[in-house]
Amino acid sequence: MMKIGITGGIGSGKTFVCQRIAGWGYPVYNCDDEAKRLMREDPEIRRKLIGLIGADAYDSNGDLNRKAVAQYLFANSEHAAQVNAIVHPAVREDFRRWAESLSETLCFMESAILFESGFQTEVDKTVLVYADEATRLQRAMRRDASTEQQIRERMDSQMPSAEAEKQADYILDNNGQQPVEEELKKMFQWIANRVS
C-alpha cells in the first residue's frame, strides 16, 4: 500500500483536491475530521482533556466544548502543544489502523499540519497543494466570510509556503489557471512513476 500525504495552507484548495480524489474512488483520511471524532468518542482522550482543561472541556451532552477549548488554546502559546500531545498520537494510531484495514493499493491522508505534526512520517510521499497568497486570501475570505486581517492572521500561524514547498515531494498547482482535474492527472502520473 502506498500512502500519500496531502497538505496546503488556508485557501489553497487542499480539501477541494481531496474531495476530487475521493470522488475518483480513492480512500482519503481527513486528519481534522478524525481528530474531532476521536476527541468526542475516545474515553482516554476525553479523560486527558478534562484533566488538562477542566470539566467544561465537554458540555452537558458530552460533546467537545469548542469555546472552552479555544479559550484554553489561545490563553497560552504552550497550551496548543499540550492538547496536540494528547490528540496527535491518537490520530496517528487511528490512521495506521485505517490504512491497514484497506484492500486498496493507494490511499491518502489529508492534513493541514502534515509537517508541523510529524505526520509525514506516516506516509510514503507528500503533496503540497499550492496557490499564491492573493488567490488563497480571496478564496478563504469568500469561504469563511472573514476579513482580510482574520485570514492573514491564520496564514501567519501556519508554516510558510516556501518552507512547505521545500519539504514536499510534489507540488500540485491549484492557482486556477488549469482545471484541478488536469493537475490531479499529472499527480497520479507522478505517483504511478514512483510505484513502478
Compile the SSE list and pairings:
Elements: E1 2-7, H1 14-23, E2 28-30, H2 31-41, H3 43-53, H4 66-75, H5 79-100, E3 106-110, E4 125-130, H6 133-144, H7 148-156, H8 161-167, E5 170-173, H9 180-195
Parallel strand pairs: 1-3, 1-4, 2-3, 4-5
Short description:
With 196 residues, this protein is of the alpha/beta class. The chain has helices at residues 14-23, 31-41, 43-53, 66-75, 79-100, 133-144, 148-156, 161-167, 180-195; strands at 2-7, 28-30, 106-110, 125-130, 170-173.
Q: Can you give the helix content as a percent range?
A: 55-70%
Give the number of DSSP strands: 5
**What is the approximate shape?**
globular
Number of helices, counting only DSSP H or I runs of 4 residues or more: 9
Strand content: 5-15%
Q: What's the overall average pLDDT, rounded?
A: 94
Structure commentary:
By secondary structure, this protein is an alpha/beta fold. It contains 9 helices and 5 strands; from the N terminus they run βαβααααββαααβα. It has a 5-stranded parallel sheet, sandwiched between helices. Helix 2 packs across helix 3 and helix 2 packs across helix 5 (79-100). The chain is globular and about 50 Å long. The chain starts with a strand and ends with a helix. The mean pLDDT is 94.
Sum up the structure in keywords.
globular, alpha/beta, 196 residues
